[in-house]
Amino acid sequence: MGFNLSSISTVFNRFKLADGTPQSPARRFRSEVRFTVTDPSATATYATVSGPGIAGAYKLVSPRLLATAPEFAGKPGNTQDPLPEDSFRLCWAAGSAGLADAAVADCTQNGAELNALRVQNTDAAALDQAFGALGFTAGGTYTLKVYADDGWKTVNGQAGKTPIATYQTRLAALPESAAALAAGTSVNYLEATLSLTPVDIATAVRNKTAAALQATIVKPAKASTPLRLDNVYTFEQGRVTASNAYPLVRIERTTYPASNATSVNAGIGVPPQKMVLPTTA
Known about the structure:
By secondary structure, this protein is mainly β.
């Protein structure tokens, strides 16, 4: 098993897949704490995580169950061809689109799609305020309990069950201020340009064709601890059938540059043939 927490700040410059033109509004900010729970040995079925900023505990389901269990057919998170290193996914609340305490979350009814608790907004200052209200604590201790039974099938199904393992880890830091990212005053984040235009990228994804893509740093991070270009990550995601959102297929590619490199060739690849309708790139 693997268990770690990471704080992630993201700035999205958004474009329409239909033609590559900017969406309205074109920029969106996201702050999140990501719960990465992996089980390459396929031993566990679900887990719970608790700690500061979490009301009670959250329930996470194994990606292999999301792909194969009939209870998840056509539900959010039902994907094909999961990888052994894919993270467990958080169960949704009964009757709503939000997360809920493990005691009331209904995994099989509402699916399990994300592995992060996040806040998104086109207003950076409003996002910072909303994320701060969640109560995550830098240096706080978070506990993961791992189960190998069928408690994922029913609401509060983990109650009375004995976990096969318990892990703890700390959240090293909170996400960067979205307002600082919006103003360009953050010293912790670099900026890069892409060799393809949004129109080029949208065309390649719609047509399911490969395209060369290079990312180049144009503004290095200026933090006291040296930061470098770690990787360039691309993905395409889409429907298996035109009429239903799930199951979906997703192909991811991560390219790692040489040490201290300022550019890297990533590329857009050809998605699986079973993808009939790209929805995200």
